[in-house]
Design brief:
- By secondary structure, this protein is an alpha+beta fold.
- Among the domains are: 78-213, Beta-Lactamase (2-Layer Sandwich), CATH 3.30.450; 338-386; 433-597, Heat Shock Protein 90, CATH 3.30.565.10.
- It has helices spanning 2-8, 12-77, 80-87, 96-118, 154-161, 209-215, 249-258, 283-286, 288-334, 349-388, 390-408, 412-430, 438-455, 481-491, 525-532, 547-558, 587-597, and strands at 122-129, 136-139, 167-174, 182-192, 199-208, 225-230, 236-239, 263-269, 276-282, 435-437, 460-466, 474-476, 499-508, 511-518, 563-569, 573-581.
- The strands form four sheets. Strands 2-1-5-4-3 form a five-stranded antiparallel β-sheet, with helices on both faces. It has a five-stranded mixed β-sheet with strand order 11-13-14-16-15.
Length: 598
């Protein structure tokens, strides 16, 4: 607690310097350490994934090569002429030597040549007949070892023991076809008579080791990675390090198994050939670049710490100095001097604060001026409002005098018109509140319709049907008049004597519903849409309130449930339905109305 109080009492510059230094150095150490560990983890996982993909690609490539080897051994198996030749008993032939010569030529020039054309990777082909010491052969080397007998070789016994199935033979020495034995890969199988299943001979197809090396020639550029293939006999048949080819698998893995922590080892086994595929890399070689990056990061961290102290000192000063200057200027504003201006030397937060301070002082000055101007305008508006009150009262009093004069002269029509006009004018001027009683609204509508009848020489009739229990409920002032006005002005056109307007006020559950129905000419849908969007009336009418204005006022006061719905048919008329909530009635109003009716 004591340490915190001492820190709190320090100057802003000291707080910023200490805080910035601490918050910079500690995160730098943590972040550098985290990213080193994270980079090591990501790097190792990606290397392992890369090795897995490369190894699987080696398996796939080798499997494709082995499939072609096995497929090559299938063609002689189904050659009927070859099977017939291998089934012959040459002792029964009249010209034995000639028959053997012709058969040898067919096998060499037809069967073997066609097979080598089918698979160019084949180096040599041999068939060891069961009933003859003759060996059918064809290869790229013209030499032949007549003394060599392969029947004792392990690979020969493996072919014989697997009956009709093809046998993949790993790296071994071919001693029959070459003057000097050479390592080859082979596939062999037993050839049998398909009818009697009698063994006729052994087929051996040899492939040079160079063919396998060509498949993986692209691996030679990976100097830090040792990738090799081990056949089913445990012999290395291919390696990115050529010196390993022919070496026993156990010898290669002995050193790696004793130092497993120093190597990454990825291994897969082929389901087709049974060969094992390895990718091995030394960890030190793999992580050499990461270690260099780590050393560079430590040096960079040290430089950043030194730079951070310098930066903290400069930044703390750049922040605290303008704040102290602003504090002095605020003291002047507190004393009433609003003409001070803070210099805005930068666009950072402190510079923005200076700009906001200048804007604030300018707005305060402007607000003071506006307040003075508003006071002047208010006094002027009150004077004009007092003057405007004279005009409606003057018109009202003048109409009363004209009414008395028309009564004195027995002009009843003029008297009725002036009386209705007085009522309408009185309703408009005496009550400035937005909400009035339904009874007042209906009285106004009745007087207004009577004036319209006089104006249009009684071309329409109207009827008001109001639920008496609703007369003491309140409604918006001038809510019905715009719709009545539209019905008369736009609906009752022409010389038809049967125009009728019916206004009904009734309960609708817990609400009040005004229904205004006319049998006029109707309104098109486009015109209805235009009316519902209308804020003000476009014609010279009693007031300028638009139909759309009424609907929006209702929704504004009572919510989206309430408003105006209009239904109209051309030639049949229009019906307007206004829905408002039943606002609480005033008891004193109900009693007063009862007394008046009594």
């Amino acid at each position: 607690m004591y340490t915190w109080r001492r820190f709190r009492d320090r100057s802003i510059r000291q707080k910023l310097f200490l805080t910035y230094s601490l918050l910079m150095i500690l995160p730098l150490v943590v972040i550098c350490n985290y990213f080193y560990i994270y980079a090591m983890s990501v790097f190792e996982s990606r290397i392992e994934k890369s090795f897995q993909e490369t190894n699987l690609q080696m398996v796939s490539t080798a499997d494709s090569f082995v499939r072609n080897m096995i497929k090559s051994s299938e063609r002689p198996f189904y050659d009927e002429r070859l099977i017939e030749i291998l089934s012959k008993n040459y002792a029964a032939e009249k010209y034995e030597t000639f028959a053997k010569s012709m058969d040898f030529r067919y096998v060499s020039d037809n069967v073997f040549k066609e097979l080598m054309h089918f698979n160019p990777d084949i180096d040599s082909i041999l068939i060891y007949p069961e009933n003859s010491p003759l060996v059918y052969r064809r290869g790229y080397d013209s030499t032949f070892n007549y003394t060599y007998q392969p029947k004792r070789e392990p690979w020969y016994q493996s072919i014989v023991n697997n009956a009709e199935r093809p046998v993949l033979i790993g790296m071994h020495e071919e001693k029959q076809m070459y003057a000097k034995p050479r390592p080859v890969l082979s596939v062999g199988r037993i050839l049998v008579d398909t009818e009697t299943y009698k063994k006729l001979g052994v087929l051996l197809i040899n492939f040079r080791m160079e063919n396998l090396e060509k498949l993986f020639s692209g691996l030679n550029h990976k100097k830090d990675v040792n990738q090799f293939i081990v056949d089913d006999n445990g012999t290395v048949v291919f390696s990115s390090n050529p010196s390993m080819i022919g070496v026993e698998h156990k010898q290669v893995m002995s050193e790696i198994e004793t130092n497993q922590d120093k190597y990454y080892v990825v291994q897969h086994k082929s389901n087709i050939s049974g060969w094992q595929f390895y990718s091995i890399v030394h960890r030190d070689k793999l992580l050499a670049e990461i270690i260099q990056i780590r050393n560079f990061a430590l040096l960079l961290l040290l430089l950043l710490v030194v730079l951070g102290f310098c930066t903290a000192y400069l930044i703390s000063g750049s922040i605290s100095n303008p704040i102290q200057r602003l504090n002095r200027l605020m003291g002047k504003v507190r004393k009433g001097d609003f003409d001070v201006v803070a210099p805005q030397e930068s666009l950072d937060e402190v510079g923005q604060l200076s700009g906001s301070f200048n804007q604030m002082t300018a707005e305060i000055k402007e607000l003071i001026a506006q307040m003075k101007l508003e006071e002047q305008r208010k006094r002027s508006a009150e004077l004009k409002a007092l003057q405007n009150q004279i005009n409606p009262h003057f018109i009202y009093n003048t109409l009363s005098v004209i009414k008395w004069m028309s009564q004195a002269q027995m002009a009843d029509n003029i008297t009725e018109a002036i009386d209705g006009m007085i009522k309408v004018l009185s309703f408009s001027t005496r009550n400035t509140q937005e909400f009035i009683y339904i009874e007042e609204e209906m009285d106004f509508i009745r007087s207004y319709l009577e004036l319209l009848q006089l104006r249009y020489y009684n071309v329409f009739e109207f009827e008001l049907e109001v639920d008496e229990t609703l007369l003491s409920c309140k409604t918006l002032k001038f809510m019905v008049q715009p719709f009545v006005e539209n019905a008369v002005f736009h609906g009752f056109v022409g010389d038809s004597p049967n125009y009728h307007l019916h206004i009904q006020v009734q309960k609708a559950g817990d609400d009040v519903q005004f229904v205004i129905t006319d049998n006029g000419v109707g309104v098109e849908q486009e015109r209805l849409t235009e009316l519902m969007q209308q804020e003000m009336s476009n014609t010279q009418t009693m007031n300028s309130i638009g139909v759309g204005n009424v609907s929006r006022r209702l929704k504004l006061h009572f919510g989206e449930k309430y408003g105006v719905n209009i239904h109209s048919s051309i030639g049949k008329g229009t019906q307007v339905i206004i829905l408002i909530p039943a606002m609480e009635q005033q008891p004193e109003r109900i009693e007063k109305r009862k007394e008046g009716s009594a």
